[in-house]
Amino acid sequence: MDIDIIKQISTISFVLHENLRVTETSDLLAKHFPNMEGKKLDKFFEFQRPKIIFLQDCVKSVGQLVLAISIEKNFAFRGQFIISSDGNGELKFVGSPWLSWITENTNLSLTVSDFSPFDVQLEQIVYSLTQKQQLRDLVTFNKELLEAKKELEKSSKVQSDLFALMSHEMRTPTASIYFSLDLIDEKELKAFDADMVRIARDSVMSLRLVIDDVLNYSKLKKEGLKNEPVIFDPRKLLKSLENTSLAKMKDSPITFHYYYDGPEKIFADAGKIKQLLSNLVDNALKFTGDGFVRVFFEFVESKQKIRICVEDTGVGIPNEKQDLIFTEFWTTESYVAKDLGVGLGLPICRKMVEVLGGSICFESFEGKGSCFYLELPAMAYVAAKKEQKTRKRDSSKSERLTGNILLAEDNFTNRYLIQLQLSKLGLNADTAVDGNEAIKKAQASKYDLILMDISMPNMDGILATKRLRQMGNNIPIIAMTAFSDPKDHFEFIDAGMNQVITKPTTISKIKKIISQYCK
Amino acid sequence: MYGLINKSIKDMVQEKYNLSVWAEILEHSGLETDAFISMQKYNDSTTFALIYAASKVLDKPVNDCLEEFGHYWATETCPKSYRQLMDLTGTDLITFLGNLNVLHERITSTFLNYSPPFFEVYAHSESFIIRYVSEREGLLHFVIGLVYGLAEYFSQTVEIIDCNQSGTSLGEVWLIRIAVV
Lengths: 519, 181
Hints:
Chain A is of the alpha/beta class. Helix content of chain A is 42%, strand content 20%. Chain A has helices at residues 3-9, 27-32, 55-60, 99-105, 121-183, 191-223, 234-248, 270-286, 345-356, 412-424, 435-444, 461-470, 486-495, 507-514; strands spanning 12-16, 22-23, 45-49, 66-70, 76-83, 91-97, 230-232, 255-261, 265-268, 292-300, 305-312, 359-365, 369-377, 379-381, 404-408, 428-432, 449-453, 477-481, 499-502.
């Protein structure tokens, strides 16, 4: 190829003769190396790829990429050798400045016109710079997304805290309304008035369930959950579940049964198992018009697991809705259920089951009923020594009780209503407005029992109980609390309290507990 | 236009004004997102929506906004992200404008469907005439801002003497007469 043609398509070109002598340098090369013409190439450049010492090496490299750097390290070029077809044996070089090396190692100013149109080095630069910019864009977006996520989490936390605070604040007045309604003797009312009182009471009870769900959910969001296994008697847990369920289904035609097959005591998270069962049974009761609700509780020795099945003959879940039931705040419509709640019961269950390392599933047939299955890790517990049995007094036969009660409660309305309930049961009730006063009175007078509120100003019920126990006072203390979390209940028992009553409660429940201590 | 243009408008507003002004502009533009990716192609309408919204929110004529953006593009965006390319294109305003087509040709082979404007520079007695041809209408003031910005980048002073529209057969054609001091 004629060197003049090569110069038109290539900005770095020259002809190489024997002994590596250079002639016909292109304008760009001549501009930067004006004395190169007629001199040996290796006086000006050394080859990075391939290694060239003799002309023969250049001949061998024909067709290969050649990279050369000036001896003074101020210029570099890239390209290839070609052999003329005219038979004169001249080697010609076709190439361009080695842009990336020059930019990296020199301050040399090249311009776009120093690159032939077919040379793609500029495009590579465009591409590489844009890719770098693209990467910066993505890093910025990632940062913005992280900040947005933090903001969202912050606002979600504020919302959760507000939910928790509101729910907690709503519990006390809800309890007061329930106490007041519970104190009204329906037998003394006209049928219509009695119905109204019953409706109001049932509604407050439903409201309480909603508040409990929101409180549990907020707590779960705020603190997360932990597996907290304890030794417990599943029969007692199931009995307590039965009592609660029977109270809820007072006038309902449905029946409730439980079945247990396993050791006397097991080691598992009793608090969460109770709440799981309570949520599942509550749902079963809500959606069952008639028939039954049954709980099967079994310990599988070989797998060290408990299997629980909550079965009902309710309305069932339509096929198309079955994927949604564990979704937060999802509720369904039902002609059976009076109160659907806020749709947090099952999501809470699923979260708890995850924490316990178990599984939850269900099968349901529309119009026939549902069955929820739980499988949770547990261990059988064999007692090392005989446990002391607590003496229980059977007071179910007597209608009225006798005894002196100290009621520690800071809320005036609650204090008044509980006092009324106690006097209705035939009990004398003295009152204290905080933990300090409760301690003073408990040390000064003889009471059969203390009903101790937990949240009180100056000194709360937990500290007051601890102090009394430290002083050697063994008076039975029953916690009356709006805290429904079983974890809190364990804390009260650890502080030295004998039992826990969750507010709002019923007069019959108070009577049942107090009758263990007062004749 | 490619995302880098829209992103640059966003950067300019956030830098010269503040984040809430940008949020207001975005809201007025009716666009759903401002997460512009440099190498992604967006409809021209996106860019124009941002410029018109900026004009409304900043209470400035559209042409002033375009000029401000052209200046920012030449003095901030390009030097920050594409300095190496700028250096290859020229070291003074006239050389740069003269080589701009070569650069645009290279970019066209990398950014598919890229439709850059066309520039020619003629010496005309004491001044220069830039012939600017674009498929897009209404961007003359962006180019004016660009010329002022480039002169600033090269530490030169430029005066725009006049701008005359010169036919519309290829899109918008303008003859911009400048004097470099």
